[in-house]
Amino acid sequence: MKLKNPIYFWITLCVLSGHSLWADSKPASSEDSLYRQSIQHDKQSIARETLDVFYHDALDCMHDNRNDEALELLDKIYSIDPTYEDVAKLRNSIRKSQAEQAMGSIQDSVHQLMKKGNKASDNGQPILAISFWRQALALDPTNTAAKKKIDDVNKILAQKQFETGYIHYHHGEMEEALDAWSNAVALDPSLKQRGLLLLMSKVDRKLQQDQISRLAAQGFDQYQQGNSEGALKTYSDLLAVDPRNEEAKRMAAKIKIQLGRVAFADAAKALAAAHDDEAIAEWQKSIQYDYEVQRSQKSIADLQARRKREIENALAAKRKPKHAPTVAASTSTAVSSSTVVAAPAQAVDPAGAMDHYRQGLAAIRGKDYHQAVTELDTAYQLDATNERIYMARERAHQEWAAVSSGNSGVSTP
Questions:
Q1: Better-predicted residue by pLDDT, 63 or 26
Q2: pLDDT of residue 25
């Protein structure tokens, strides 16, 4: 913006701030009244002329469709004299026009997104269609057409998953059946009222019992075969599923004592052979197995203190201690502090998407919904057209939201 007469702006500031343009001139007391009247008249005249310049510049900007510049000038005039000409009316008119243009631009974008969604739906790409409709809904939350289209597609997908679940159920594939039904409920919550949650609960309990039986048998076999560490891990997994399982508690405690005793004895042997690092590692195992924890901690502390004293004594015995060169360290620091360049944005990668999908599905089955959301969001970014990824992602988000709010998720009714 460039004013025709910028000198007026400076003059106006002087006038409005009350400073005299003739600071060194002081009239005689007899002429004071006349002088003040003259200055006041000059101030009003200068201010009026400046506002006139601003006003005409604003009209020129409006004529050239430079409404932002026009509004800036009108705001200046309004701040000085809100009653000047039709400034208030012009400001409101420009702002209304800008708001209408912005709304029109948004509606154009919404219209284009709806068209893309409709086209994707007609081409048999419902998940891609939902993506476009959701973008339209984000721009215009009152778009009932977008909401209805999303709901309609979700209900169709939910019905397919509902039926797929029964097929798996009748084939004895309980885990797959539960997955399908959980997807169905996530896409269409009304299915909860059709007795599905009761059946899901029954299947979930059966799956849990099967898992407990399998882990118990696996742990027993590992122990019998002498694989104590593997057996301990299996019994720990069993307790994560069934914390009250007394047999798993008993076996886990028994195995930890056995492994801890061996580790503590191995530490003593390593120490006697002057294998300090090995001794420390074995004591740490002993602590891990809750065996002789205090004695193991003290042994580690004593050994580390002895090694420290030996090093200090060795250094003190040398008259001229050698200083380690700093070149390598500097180089290492330079390398480690080098800037990591972010990888470029990935293109659509169906194979990569399926890898993350499988990891997300495993996280759902393990009830690690936060990890599931992370994996399935990544999968969806890599392939926004995959129906299985979309449904699993919807389910993971609902499960995570339910867990975060303290409510039970759909997979554990």
A1: 63
A2: 47
